[in-house]
Amino acid sequence: MMDATAPADLLPDDDDRPRRRPVLRIALMLPVLLIAVAAAWFIWGRPAPVTYDTAPVARRDLENAVTASGRIQPYSFVDVGAQVSGQLRQLHVAPGDVVRAGQVLASIDAEVQAAQVEGLQAELSRLAAQKAEIGAQLAFAERQAGRQNSLLGRSASQSTLEQAERDRDVLRAQSDAVDATMRRSQAELRAEQATLDRSRITSPMAGTVVAIEAREGQMLNANYDTPIILRIADLSVMTVQSDVSEADVVHLQQGMPVWFSTLGFPDRKYRATLRQILPAPPIPKDGEEASTIVNYRALFDIQNPEGALLSGMTAQVFFVTEAASDVLSVPIAALDDDGSLRVMAKGIPERRRPETGMRTRAFVEIRSGLAEGEAVITAERRDDAPSALRIVP
Q1: Spatial distance between the Cα atoms of 264 and 316, rounded to a whole number of angstroms
Q2: Can you say whether residue 369 is alpha, beta or left, with left for phi > 0 and alpha for psi between -120 and 50 degrees?
Q3: Would you give the DSSP letter of residue 43?
Q4: To 10 degrees, the CA torsion angle through 251, 256, 262, 266?
Q5: pLDDT tens digit sequence for 38-71
Q6: Multidrug resistance protein MdtA-like beta-barrel domain: which residues (predicted)?
Q7: Cβ neighbour number for residue 279 with a 10 Å cutoff
Q8: Taking the model in full, what pTM does it have?
């Protein structure tokens, strides 16, 4: 019978078993690691595809301009003031009213002037009666002097003739004095009547009442300055006053095209031509500090038949220094520093060097080398995976 017990040196050593397990694990994990590395290279290691942004070669209107802000004012307006002192009794108009030339706008209390006119008229009536009386006496005295002259030497003495002539001459002098007094009174009456007429303030022009500066009941003193009561303007033609910096005004010239938009109608372009550039900067008004920024005022006019432009509106002004209409152009971003660009030809970028012309901030004119409708590359980007781990072969 054989002994089933194996020799002790043939049995596996218990200490060797744990040492073999890590090797086995590594052998089992190696294929998995290789697969992971291959997948990572496939996902992150290969070159990322390139995406191109393109824009078509198209016809556009190009423009370079000097920009500035401006203020819209009526081309023709007048400030209506009081020429006499007194209390403003009544305003006959309101802002927005359309008035005609000669229409009464306001009335000033003129009781004193009216009384003076009546007094002078009465004085003239008295002087006229006095002149008539003196005239009758003078006519009688002249007849008496003539009669005494004809009777001289017969029944009249020389002294009687001389007395008659003196009476006649005195009456003539009195008549002349009354005439002078009447002329003076008539002049005073005309002056007082003019003052009375000025108490009724009339419009010097046809237009629209755009502002009222005085109130009914207000005392007006015209002795030192003319108090402004209201402003009338012709709103059919407006003037845009634009302040242009000294760095930009050198690019402006009279007659150049200009357009502007307003805050109320930002998409509407009002077009005009530059009328005038004032030769000196605006003088600061009383109480305003002089600015260190030097601006020059440019003026141009615009028809306003619809009345959409109102006095005091703000305008964004563009003085056109260069323009091209309906020309082929591409975005300026498509052009490289050397003047070349890339065109997508059957899905493949192709570099060309076209002849260019006018440039703006956004576009460049193409004179030759490109056809309308071709697509030019404006930008490119690689669609990289958004991961922190990237394996590059």
Answers
A1: 11
A2: left
A3: I
A4: -90
A5: 666 555 555 667 788 999 999 999 999 999 999 9
A6: 238-317
A7: 7
A8: 0.67
Residues in contact with 277: Cβ distance below 8 Å, sequence separation at least 6, in sequence order: 244, 249, 252, 254, 296, 297, 298, 299
- Token pair 């095209």 is found at 257
CA nearest neighbour of 320 among 259, 380, 245, 372 = 259
Spatial separation of the C-alpha atoms in residues 246 and 296, rounded to whole Å: 7
Q: Are 379 and 52 in contact (CB under 8 A)?
A: yes
Q: Single out the residue of 346, 217, 366, 277 nearest to residue 66, CA to CA.
A: 277
Give 361-379 as a DSSP string.
SSEEEEEES--TT-EEEEE
Distance CA 145, CA 170 (A): 12
Q: Do the beta carbons of residue 134 and residue 178 sit within 8 Å?
A: yes
Give the sheet arrangement for strand 86-91, strand by strand: 200-202, 104-108, 86-91, 219-220
Is 51 exposed, middle or buried (CB count within 10 Å of its CB: 0-12, 13-18, 19+)?
A: exposed
Dist CA 21 CA 27 (whole Å):
10
Q: What is the pLDDT of residues 148-199, one digit of tens each?
A: 666 665 555 666 666 666 777 777 888 788 889 889 988 988 888 888 888 8
CB of 50 closer than 8 Å to CB of 380:
yes
CA angle 213, 231, 76 (to 5 degrees): 155
Query: Any bridge partners for residue 22, and if so which?
Result: none
Nearest to 89 by CA among 220, 227, 222: 220
3-state secondary structure of 248: coil
Residue found by looking up tokens 């590059």 in the block: 392
Bridge partner list, 232: 78, 209
Helices marked H in the chain: 17-40, 111-151, 158-198
Phi, psi values for residue 140, rounded to 5°: -65, -40
CATH of domain 78-208: 1.10.287
Domain ranges of the chain: 17-46, 50-77+236-393, 78-208
Tokens describing residue 196? 């009375």
CATH no., domain 50-77+236-393: 2.40.30.170
Q: Tell me whether residue 299 is exposed, middle or buried, using C-beta atoms within 10 angstroms of its C-beta: 0 to 12, 13 to 18, 19 or more.
A: middle
